[in-house]
Specification:
Layout (H helix, E strand, L loop, with lengths): L1 H21 L14 E6 L2 E2 L1 E4 L2 E4 L2 E6 L9 E5 L3 E3 L16 E5 L4 E5 L1 E2 L4 E9 L16 E4 L5 H21 L3 E3 L8 E3 L6 E2 L4 E2 L1 H27 L10 H23 L17 E2 L2 E2 L1 H23 L13 H20 L5 E10 L4 E12 L3 E8 L2 E2 L3 E2 L16 E4 L2 E9 L14 E6 L5 E5 L1
Parallel strand pairs: 2-12
Antiparallel strand pairs: 1-5, 3-4, 4-10, 5-9, 6-7, 6-11, 8-9, 11-12, 13-14, 15-16, 17-18, 19-20, 20-25, 21-22, 21-23, 21-26, 24-25, 26-27
């Protein structure tokens, strides 16, 4: 009987010893190991997930061959060749297994889903899989072809927040640094604007330029996209990257630069748009001398909507997977070119607008007449002339000089002609005002306005 019991005990010990030899332990360092062939690993970066007090990396997928499809728990995840993670099985506890770590087989045994990788593995890691089936142990080296994954120390929201901070900071920095008020060159004395506004002002007309606005907008968009790509690749994917600007975005910036240069050239060759009010106004982006221009409205909307769409789509890209910028569709570039061409075409087709650079008023108390000498460019001899009188709150409503008040003809010399039989650089207008204190001892400030036949307007104080 004692001999029988002893034989059973010896047999049990032999079986247990053989099972221990066959099982891969995470801390084994035997010379050989049976590896699965991991062909693909995705995503290439994982974010930390909070599970109460525990933080892990979840959702790592591995595709390949040689996985243990019958017993997914037998697949051991090797990280950097010297660390192993093995799933704990409830009814068959394994020494050295990792609590919370799990492996599930999907897609017919050719794909594994791994969850519960501890957060202390954050960083750039090489991954391999060994199986207990027939393996002799784990080596400290893994195949050189083993794919890599980044366990990000940050969540997916942070690259987006950082890129938006760069965008907002860049936009805010310009008006903060260049907030000082300076005189506007070529404008009436005392006209002051912020330094940063000079970036958008056409010097010929002292109005805000739509083509300059588009150039500035797309420059900031390109800066945002570059920041997002560089931060995502460098911080989340841990692949330091100095992002390259895609050809389509560079092409769009080229369209903006071309429109800006063409506008300046047209101002010199053909004459600029109307100056409108004496200081720049945001209405300049959609109007010409007070007249709303559909081509400018379309150009502005296309720029703003396109920029917002590009920023939104860029933010929608997963920081763990982004490899390059969003390429602008060819159709979008084509329509942007057509929009710019329509904008420039309208500038060519539209007559030059009035720009006033000086107004001199000479009242004659004896004749009760006032002589206005108006200097500038594209001043129409057949235009409409208005006077606004100063009040405690600026200028009152502009009142047209009526035909009965005008003393015709309006003097315009041939040598002052400005590209058209009706446009001049200097007009002498004589009229007898029906209102206003023109001839008293106290001079009254006023504002002269000229409206050309096409509706373009320019103002100037006197």
């Amino acid at each position: 009987m004692k001999t029988f019991v002893a034989a059973i005990l010896v047999a049990d010990l032999m079986i247990a010893g053989q099972a221990a030899a066959d099982a891969i332990q995470p801390n084994q360092t035997a010379a050989t190991v049976k590896y699965a062939d991991v062909v693909q690993l995705f995503p290439n970066a994982l974010y930390p997930s909070k599970h109460g007090a525990l933080t892990t990396y979840d959702g790592l997928h591995l595709r390949g061959n040689g996985f243990d499809a019958v017993n997914p728990a037998a697949n051991i995840l090797l990280i950097d060749g010297n660390r192993a993670l093995q799933m704990c099985v409830q009814d068959k506890p394994t020494a050295g297994c990792t609590p919370g770590f799990s492996v599930a087989g999907i897609t017919g045994g050719t794909e594994l889903e791994v969850n519960g990788i501890p957060e202390n593995f954050k960083g750039f890691r090489r991954i391999a899989v060994a199986t207990t089936s027939g393996a002799q142990g784990l080596g400290t080296a893994i195949p050189s072809s083993a794919p890599t994954v980044t366990f990000s120390p940050f969540g997916a929201i942070w690259p987006r927040v950082a890129a938006l901070i760069v965008l907002v900071a860049s936009i805010s920095l310009v008006p903060i640094v260049f907030r000082r008020r300076v005189p506007l060159s070529g404008a009436p004395a005392g006209t002051m604007i912020r330094q940063w506004q000079l970036l958008l002002v056409e010097p010929d007309t002292n109005t805000f330029s739509l083509s300059r606005l588009q150039l500035v907008v797309w420059t900031f968009v390109a800066l945002f996209a570059w920041s997002y790509l560089s931060i995502a690749r460098s911080v989340i994917q841990m692949t330091p990257t100095f992002g390259d600007i895609p050809g389509s975005l560079a092409g769009l910036l080229g369209i903006s630069v071309g429109a800006t240069v063409s506008t300046l050239t047209l101002n010199v060759v053909k004459g600029g748009k109307a100056a409108g009010p004496t200081s720049p106004s945001f209405s300049d982006f959609i109007s010409v001398g007070g007249v709303v221009a559909p081509d400018r409205l379309q150009y502005l909307l296309w720029t703003v909507v396109g920029a917002i769409a590009y920023v939104t789509l860029t933010l929608s890209l997963d920081p763990a997977r982004i490899q390059q910028y969003i390429e602008l569709p060819t159709g979008f570039l084509t329509l942007s070119g057509i929009s710019a061409a329509g904008y420039l075409g309208a500038r060519i087709a539209r007559s030059a607008g009035p720009i006033v650079s000086r107004v001199t008023a000479a009242p004659d108390a004896e004749t009760q007449a006032v002589t206005l000498t108006v200097e500038g460019t594209a001043l129409s001899k057949s235009g409409k002339y208005l006077i606004a009188y100063s009040t405690n709150n600026g200028y009152g409503s502009a009142v047209a000089i009526t035909a009965s008040e005008l003393q015709l003809p309006i003097v315009a010399n041939v040598e002052d002609q400005d590209g058209s039989p009706d446009l001049y650089k200097k007009l002498v207008i004589v009229f007898k005002p029906a209102r206003g204190n023109w001839f008293g001892q106290q001079s009254q400030k006023g504002q002269f306005s000229i409206i050309n036949p096409d509706g373009q307007r320019a103002d100037w104080p006197f």
